[in-house]
Design a protein that fits this description.
Two copies of one chain form a homodimer. Chain A is built from three helices and four strands, in the order βαββααβ. Chain A has a four-stranded antiparallel sheet with strand order 2-3-1-4. In chain A, β2 and β3 form a beta hairpin. Chain A is globular. Chains A and B meet through β1, α1, β2, β3 and β4 of A and β1, α1, β2, β3 and β4 of B.
């Protein structure tokens, strides 16, 4: 399982007034992520709705769940994403359900 | 804003033992959604992790936020997705943040 391609979906609870600060910080962390082994894409989504449960959701593609874990549990990511601690986060790794 | 292409991201809290029941019911509701105006894609993601906050996340593309709202607030959808009430749901409409 951990060797199959997967999608990481990370939902962030961000107050409206923190929007600009969040995007700036996320982009910095994303520069680190884009250089890690196995990442194939990262797409940050911003809610259009006025009072979303999650103002931002990052959907990223990975060659494997191990690659995602190695990248996000590295010391480099902890430094690049220290700002993450300011926001409640829900992160999981997913596979697509065939339809 | 409501006339631009957008992405609906819907996260479902589902107990492990309800996995099969959820997928069956979701596919039924998805058959309805796929026939609605403006929908361009639907992709159901199932968590690989053991204890995810959200076991399932549906990411769907829409020609506009209005199309998504019309489809999911219709009587037809309420009937097709009556099972939804069994699960805690977080749904919002998103735009992609340029990077």
């Amino acid at each position: 399982m951990a060797r199959d391609a997967c999608t990481a979906i990370v939902a962030y609870q961000v107050a409206a007034e923190d929007t600009d600060r969040f995007v700036t910080a996320w982009k910095e962390a994303n520069e680190f992520i884009k250089q890690q082994k196995g990442v194939t894409s990262t797409t940050l989504h911003r809610a259009v709705s006025a009072n979303p449960d999650f103002r931002f959701v990052n959907v990223s593609g990975w060659a494997s769940a191990d690659d995602f874990r190695n990248a996000t549990q590295s010391d480099g990511f902890r430094r690049a994403a220290a700002w993450l601690e300011a926001y409640a986060v829900h992160a999981s790794v997913y596979e697509v359900v065939p339809t």
